[in-house]
Amino acid sequence: MKQVYFIIAMLCGLALGGQAQGIRFAEGSWKELLETAKKEGKLIFVDCYTEWCQPCKQMEQQVFPSEKVGKFYNEHFINVKMDMEKGEGPVILNTYKINAFPTLLFVNGEGGEVYRIVGSKKEAELLQVGADALASKTVYPVNSQAQQQIALIGREIPDFCYRDSTGKEVKFSSFRGNYVYVDMWATWCRPCCEEIPYMGELEKKFHGKKICFVSLSCDKDLQAWKKKLRTDRMGGIQLNCGGDPAFMKFFGIQGIPHFILLDPEGKVVNPNMSRPSQEITVETLSRLKGI
């Protein structure tokens, strides 16, 4: 019996030892990670990846488990893996203008970018990348709009109430139980109007799913707005804020079109969502839990 316990203890020790090797990736919201980085006086190392990226998988399987790499990165950084197509990933992608994978990003506790490099790295190369990040004296601060939007993630929105084309008041709380994809637009905004056909395609593609497509116009000319709805045969839920700045102020919107994704509880998933015309939008919506 003692021999059996000894073998079990050995196996547990090996398992724990295996877990100790390689980079330890932290979990938590972006806000929590920033707070941890501030508290510990460390940079955050972000592995910006996607599920379909083969070089990303190669690093995950061959480089991140390295004991030497793990020792260096665990000592000097708060490490996090972030899928750029899920959760807070799209927000980070937009905030830091990530356009290739993997992107190895280093930011400080204020969210300012300190260093980045693109592409798969081998063990020695990744160690050098980390050393270069620590030695970097350059910081690119995140602009105030991006900081405001990042802070919104996971926050429940106020129960905004606007009128539809018939004059009926519609509260955002009426969408509870469904995801909500919001399009902030106006008839006089050409880029906004160019997205209308793509918005219609999204509505058709996700018909019957647990998601509402809300087009919120900031037109003050209600007749022009209603005419556009008829002319373009716009579907979905059409609302008009009548020039009320509350919605735009809450989300820190400085220009349109602007897209937002809310969860079924009315909490912000992505305050700066991709456009209907972008392929990543369909992919992101398709992967929403419970849709």
From TrEMBL:
<feature type="domain" description="Thioredoxin">
    <location>
        <begin position="151"/>
        <end position="290"/>
    </location>
</feature>
<dbReference type="InterPro" id="IPR013766">
    <property type="entry name" value="Thioredoxin_domain"/>
</dbReference>
<feature type="signal peptide">
    <location>
        <begin position="1"/>
        <end position="20"/>
    </location>
</feature>
<dbReference type="GO" id="GO:0016491">
    <property type="term" value="F:oxidoreductase activity"/>
</dbReference>
<feature type="domain" description="Thioredoxin">
    <location>
        <begin position="14"/>
        <end position="135"/>
    </location>
</feature>
<dbReference type="Pfam" id="PF13098">
    <property type="entry name" value="Thioredoxin_2"/>
</dbReference>
<dbReference type="InterPro" id="IPR036249">
    <property type="entry name" value="Thioredoxin-like_sf"/>
</dbReference>
<protein>
    <submittedName>
        <fullName>DUF255 domain-containing protein</fullName>
    </submittedName>
</protein>
<dbReference type="InterPro" id="IPR050553">
    <property type="entry name" value="Thioredoxin_ResA/DsbE_sf"/>
</dbReference>
<dbReference type="InterPro" id="IPR013740">
    <property type="entry name" value="Redoxin"/>
</dbReference>
<dbReference type="GO" id="GO:0030313">
    <property type="term" value="C:cell envelope"/>
</dbReference>
<keyword id="KW-1015">Disulfide bond</keyword>
<keyword id="KW-0676">Redox-active center</keyword>
<dbReference type="GO" id="GO:0017004">
    <property type="term" value="P:cytochrome complex assembly"/>
</dbReference>
<dbReference type="Pfam" id="PF08534">
    <property type="entry name" value="Redoxin"/>
</dbReference>
<keyword id="KW-0201">Cytochrome c-type biogenesis</keyword>
<keyword id="KW-0732">Signal</keyword>
<dbReference type="InterPro" id="IPR012336">
    <property type="entry name" value="Thioredoxin-like_fold"/>
</dbReference>
